[in-house]
Write a structure and sequence with these properties.
- The complex is a heterodimer of chains A (about 350) and B (about 260).
- Chain A is built from 13 helices and 15 strands.
- By secondary structure, chain A is α/β, with parallel strands linked by helices.
- In chain A, the strands form three sheets. In chain A, strands 3-2-4-5-7-6-13 form a seven-stranded mixed beta sheet, with helices on both faces. Chain A has a five-stranded mixed beta sheet with strand order 10-12-11-14-15, sandwiched between helices. A two-stranded antiparallel ribbon of chain A has the order 1-8.
- Chain A is globular, with a radius of gyration of 21 Å.
- Chain B has one domain: Thiamin diphosphate (ThDP)-binding fold, Pyr/PP domains (Rossmann fold, 3-Layer(aba) Sandwich), CATH 3.40.50.
- Chain B contains nine helices and seven strands.
- A seven-stranded mixed beta sheet of chain B has the order 2-1-3-4-6-5-7, sandwiched between helices.
- Chain B starts with about 40 loop residues before the first helix and ends in a 5-residue tail after the last strand.
- Classes of the chains: A alpha/beta (about 350), B alpha/beta (about 260).
- Chains A and B meet through helix 3, helix 5 and strand 9 of A and strand 1, strand 2, helix 2 and helix 4 of B.
- Strand 9 of chain A pairs parallel with strand 2 of chain B.
Chain lengths: ~350, ~260
């Protein structure tokens, strides 16, 4: 049993970063995730020797990540929506160059400067690319403070296994709320680094270099094919989701992160009223849990997707069910959070009362 | 290895050898640079410095976006290729996690003083311990001759076809003088590579900068004012004359800041 503490999501994420043996954090303040840099600034360097540096911008921060990741180090940055937008160029380079790192987005309401309240408006940006070119981030969606802790360590493992950038896509609520967490023990920082890392030329060898530039199209196509093979391996090996009541359900609620948590309550309320509702919560948004949706589609009367946006993940749900069942959507935007009552009402309206229309 | 292939005649024989590459630090690959371009000269002298000072195993470089984007095809030291303008941020990341390694960036005027100005200024202001080799030829090379932040007043480029107009396009930026004002900056010098004396002095400046880096004195910048015959639409000799008469009149040579004084 690890140490138990009552912690705020952002601070728990920062504590997990220190304990996961992170070598460097580069970040820039933005609400609602500034606690991460603040927490690390207290004594992270004293505790493990890790680098903690406030960059001049998110643009600089992600490129510091590129440099340090290129040295084979465990590195992480965090930001919120507008700042994550500024990092997109760097993430495209990092994905192309095959550098491992973890980036957390504490999603706030947009578009534009938007609001500092929670939102899930960055699903498309996180899951479908965000920057230029054919690449994916490996996207983990925590729905609790505990998962803010667990996904840091697991994110580093995935990042290093696939040499890929990993995104922890949370939101302003998960970042700001306090919950009981169990912390894993302090892990040692790495002392050995992979061969591809630019740690200084080795004697008797030519230099190592890191690049995403391959002028010849034949070579660049190979780089792309290798990336796609990596994504295919993630799809085959790394899909994660949580489910409830799939054995007896007639309807399925789905959502991720905060949305899924609210759905869980709505599901319980619905079951008390006699509706046989189940829940699928995708934990990996890329790779998406396509198969479970497809399997369940022929067994249920409909799926209600709930998100704190205008309907983004619902596109992946629809692609997964291949038209085999009705998929409808309920969402709030701009920092508004739907209540369980609202979701249950939306369900009744779309599937029970007006469902035949 | 390089993904460029060139057929060439090997004219090297012992009896005609008057000039040699630093064999351990410069890869035996023909440069892709235009005839008369100073990039290959600066690459060579910096690799001579690395070999002579025996730091090739202890240094990591950052290549920019610009003509020298492929620097890692030639320089036999560990390198990372950075996004346009971000070399100083990438170098910061490298140096912070490996404080005992030497780190350098190699950047042109557009990369360092236009799109990357913020990263350059803030790395300098933090006193990051790395060396910036700044190639200033007053024009964009890789994209074929557009106006650079360092383009001289009245100078014709493809995006200032009537000559750089100060009223609408601003002044040529003396970024080295600007950076020298910052307390985190240890050493700023402006050199050239258009003639033999200039090349020798540039090499000396690079040696000094490496000494300062070993002592972790702070941010060092060696500006090299160079030509760009292809985009100036000149012969190499004409472009050298342009450097001597026009560029150096506005960008005077010499130390701008040295450790402990001036």
């Amino acid at each position: 049993m690890g140490e138990i503490r009552l912690m705020k999501g952002n601070e728990a994420l920062a504590e997990a970063m220190i304990r996961a043996g992170c070598d460097a954090y580069f970040g820039y303040p933005i609400t609602p995730q500034s606690e991460v840099l603040e927490y690390l600034s207290i004594d992270a360097t004293k505790r493990t020797g890790m680098v903690v540096l406030q960059a001049e911008s998110e643009v600089a921060a992600i490129n510091m990540i590129y440099g340090a990741a290129g040295c084979g180090r465990r590195v992480m940055t965090t930001s919120s929506s507008p700042g994550i937008s500024l990092m997109q160029e760097g993430l495209s380079y990092i994905a192309s160059a095959g550098l491992p790192c973890v980036v957390a987005n504490v999603n706030r309401g947009g578009p534009g400067l938007g609001t500092i309240q929670p939102s899930q408006g960055d699903y498309f940006q996180s899951v479908k690319g965000g920057g230029h070119g054919d690449y994916h981030l490996f996207v983990l969606a925590p729905s609790s403070v505990q998962e803010m802790v667990d996904f840091v360590r697991e994110g580093f493992d995935i990042a290093e296994k696939y040499r890929t950038p990993v995104m922890i896509l949370s939101d302003g609520a998960v970042g700001q709320m306090m919950e009981k967490v169990e912390l894993f023990d302090q892990m040692p920082r790495k002392t050995e680094f992979p061969d591809w890392a630019t740690t200084g030329r080795k004697r008797g060898q030519d230099r190592t270099y890191i690049t995403s530039l391959f002028i010849k199209p034949e070579k660049m196509e190979m780089i792309n094919l290798n990336l796609q093979a990596k994504y295919q391996a993630m799809i085959e090996n790394e899909v994660r989701y949580q489910s409830f009541h799939l054995d007896d359900c007639e309807y399925i609620f789905t959502g991720y992160g905060l949305g899924a948590r609210i759905c869980q309550k709505a599901m319980e309320m619905g079951r008390e009223k006699g509706y046989k509702i189940g829940l699928i919560r995708p934990i990996t948004l890329f790779p998406f849990p396509t198969t479970i949706f497809n399997e369940m589609a022929s067994k249920v009367k409909g799926i209600l997707d709930v998100e704190l946006n205008a309907g983004q993940m619902v596109e992946d749900v629809r692609l997964s069910v291949e038209g085999k069942t009705k998929v409808d959507f309920y969402g709030r935007m701009g920092g508004m959070i739907p209540s369980p009552d609202e979701i249950l009402n939306a369900f009744e309206e779309k599937f029970i009362n007006g469902g035949a229309k | 290895m390089s993904d460029m292939n060139f057929d060439r005649l090997d004219i090297r024989t012992d009896d005609c050898m008057v000039y040699e590459k630093p064999l351990d630090t410069l890869l035996d690959v023909p440069f892709h640079y235009c005839p008369g371009c100073a990039h290959s000269t600066v690459h060579k002298i910096f690799m001579e410095v690395c070999q002579e000072m025996e730091i090739q195993y202890d240094i990591v470089g950052v290549a920019p976006v610009g003509c020298s984007v492929f620097a890692y095809h030639y320089l036999n030291v560990d390198m990372q290729q950075a996004a346009h303008g971000r070399a100083c941020a990438v170098a910061t990341g490298i140096k912070r996690v490996m404080p005992d390694k030497l780190v350098f960036t190699y950047q042109g005027d557009g990369d360092l003083a236009a799109i990357g100005t913020a990263e350059t200024v803030h790395a300098a202001n933090r006193g990051e311990n790395f060396l910036v080799i700044f190639i200033n030829n007053g024009i964009y090379g890789m994209t074929s001759g557009q106006m650079a932040p360092t383009t001289l007043e009245g100078m014709v480029t493809t995006t200032s076809p009537h000559g750089r107009d100060i009223a609408t396009q601003g002044y040529p930026l003396k970024i080295s003088e600007l950076l020298a004002n910052l307390p985190g900056v240890a050493y700023v010098t402006r050199q050239t590579a258009y003639n033999a004396a200039g090349v020798r002095k540039t090499k000396k400046a690079l040696q000094k900068a490496i000494e300062y880096q070993k002592k972790k004195l702070g941010f060092c910048l060696v500006e090299v004012v160079t030509n760009c015959p292809s985009n100036l639409k000149m012969t190499p000799l004409e472009s050298n004359k342009f450097v001597e008469e026009q560029m150096l009149a506005f960008y005077p040579l010499g130390d701008i800041k040295v450790p402990g004084g001036k």
